[in-house]
Amino acid sequence: MVNVTLPTLVVDLDANTRDLQWIIDAYTLTFAALVLAAGSLGDRFGRRRTLMLGLVIYGLGNGAASLATSTEALVAARAIMGVGAAVIFPTTLSIITNVFTERGERARAIGLWGAATGIAIAMGPIAGGALLEAYSWPATFLAKIPVALIALGLVAWLVPDSCDPEAPRIDFPGLFLSTAAVGLLVYSLIEAPQAGWLSTQTVGLLLTAGVAFTAFVLCERRTSHPMLDVRIFRNLRFSAASIAVAVGFFALAGFIFLVTQYFQFLKGYGPFETGLRMLPVAISVAISSIIGTQLAVRFGTKFIVGGGMILLSIAYGWISTSSVDTSYVEIALQMLVLGTGMGLTSAPATESIMGAVSNAKAGIGSAVNDTTRELGATLGVAVVGSVFASLYHGAFSPASTRGIPGAALGPAEDSIGGALIAAQRLAEGGATEAADTLNRAATTGFFDGMQAGCLVASAVCLVGATICFMFLPAQPQPVANETIPDGIVEATGKAVA
After folding, report:
1. Residues 124 and 211 in one domain
2. Would you say residue 112 lies in a domain?
3. Residue 455 Ramachandran class (φ > 0 left, ψ -120 to 50 alpha, else beta)
4. Residue 182 shares a structural domain with residue 241
5. Using one digit for the tens of pLDDT, what is the confidence trace for 81-129?
6. Residue 143 belongs to some domain of the structure
7. What is the mean pLDDT of the chain?
8. pLDDT score for 167
């Protein structure tokens, strides 16, 4: 919903590229940094009341955003939304796991949970585009407040409460170290494309994040009541599935980063029309999420998740062949393959993760799922964005931009949108040859970058599929004569490999 408002914010709030980046990333940063801690606290203090608290925080954040008169205020409001989302997300899956304890029922419920994600992929841009065209950008934030209030009432009425019956003392060192480690890692990934991947800043932040992660693991191994029993990562149904989720969202976030620009700048679709044309991927994610979890129970998680990632790899390879002349029918077919692969990957992998933790620790298990998803998405935008930017900028060589005024080259090299606007102004000023040259260079650079970015995503998905087929167990396997760490059990009570 927020993505479609970005061009308007450039005009209304005088936002530059850096401002737009942080309007998006402030939410990502607080969400990713706090979700592990929030999942742990939900297990302790009760998941229903935690979910209700998160909805209140999220609603307040949207209210503040609708009143923002500067980019700084909007960034701060987006950070508050991220805090609310960090509280909401892990409680949803942990509540589902505690309500539906039989694996088949739980798989169906998680499939529907994954389908909701697919629906949101389309509903956000569609609703945001309609509100933006009918009213203004504050309406895109105001519209979410009644939704949060309705959800709050339904949770209070219908959702049963649950918590960890042992309710150990709060692991303050674990809370602090997990927040610091994930926060530093996400911040370094957000800043890396601009600062440089080998810059002192990026390397320093990554090293510091590594130290924080190491300290977190050591701390959790030594405490008697850890926030996260890190021994759970020995369970391949948990760790391999977490890798699958991260890889899937790495590729999806990179795709959304590219396709929104492709639709709006190269195909000329408006915000609302862009949302409508994303329906194939949303519908296919929704349907395959429901079907995928059932197939995983019947035929094995390994084969469904691995097969889903192969479909993702095929989809990105196909998308890399797109050009400005590619018909929407072909694009829609590409998105159907992509959405099907995403649904078969994400929802069954999530079911595997949640089946590998006890009901008492469902909140922290869900939080790990959310963290890997957010880290994968952040890394996807950073890596795919960097690959795209390097090839896009490379298209503006002295030979390819001969005759173009320097004043037009600056915004053109900054973004494809800036290039097309600059070309239009050159044409309006009578410099049609320079406009054509600029348009050709920008379009060539965009598709070079898009092709390379999609091929990177395709390769990453292929590696992810290989990992799944090698390490992800097909089904939960009882383990005889072996001590299993607390919390590393099938939700039905069976120990798993």
Report:
1. no
2. yes
3. alpha
4. no
5. 999 999 998 899 889 988 888 888 988 999 998 888 878 877 888 888 8
6. yes
7. 85
8. 64
The one-letter code for the residue type at 209 is A
Residue owning tokens 């072909």: 330
- What is the CATH classification number for the domain harbouring 17? 1.20.1250.20
**CA 248/CA 258 separation, integer angstroms:** 16
User: Which residues 6+ apart lie within 8 Å of 430 measured at CB?
Assistant: none
State the residue range of the domain holding 194. 172-224
* Angle between helical axes of 362-394 and 47-66 (0-180°, round to 10): 30
Whether residue 479 lies inside any domain: the answer is: no
CA distance 35 to 82: 9
Report CA dihedral (327, 331, 337, 339) to the nearest 10 degrees.
-150
Instruction: Please state, in angstroms and rounded to a whole number, the distance separating the CA atoms of residues 47 and 44.
Output: 8
pLDDT at 477 over 80: no
Contact 247, 376 (CB under 8 A): yes
The per-residue pLDDT for range 248-260, each reduced to its tens digit, is 989 888 887 788 7
Non-local CB neighbours of 387 within 8 Å, separated by 6+ positions: 449, 452, 453, 456
Paired tokens of 373: 């998803």
What sign does the dihedral 183-189-195-198 (CA atoms) show?
A: positive
Degrees (nearest 5) of the Cα angle 340, 342, 343?
A: 65
> 95 near 48, Cβ under 8 Å?
yes
Mean pLDDT of 37-55: 88
Residue 478 confidence (pLDDT): 54
CA distances (Å), 319 to each of 337, 430, 443, 458, 459, in order?
Answer: 10, 36, 16, 10, 13
- Separation in Å, CA 199 to CA 22, 190, 195: 20, 13, 6
Cβ atoms within 10 Å, residue 356: 28
Amino acid at 201: Q
| CA-wise closest residue to 13 among 127, 190, 135, 136 | 136
* Two tokens, residue 161: 């409460």
- Burial of residue 430, with CB atoms counted within 10 A of its CB: 0-12 exposed, 13-18 middle, 19 or more buried: exposed
d(CA 249, CA 341) in angstroms, rounded, equals 11
pLDDT at 135: 87
Q: Which has the higher per-residue pLDDT, 275 or 148?
A: 148
70 has a pLDDT exceeding 50: yes
Q: How confident is the model at residue 314, as a pLDDT? A: 96
The amino acid occupying position 386 is S
Most distant pair of Cα atoms in the chain: their distance: 82
Cα separations (Å) of 430 from 14, 438, 439? 28, 14, 15
Angle between the 328-355 and 279-299 helix axes, to the nearest 10 degrees?
A: 40
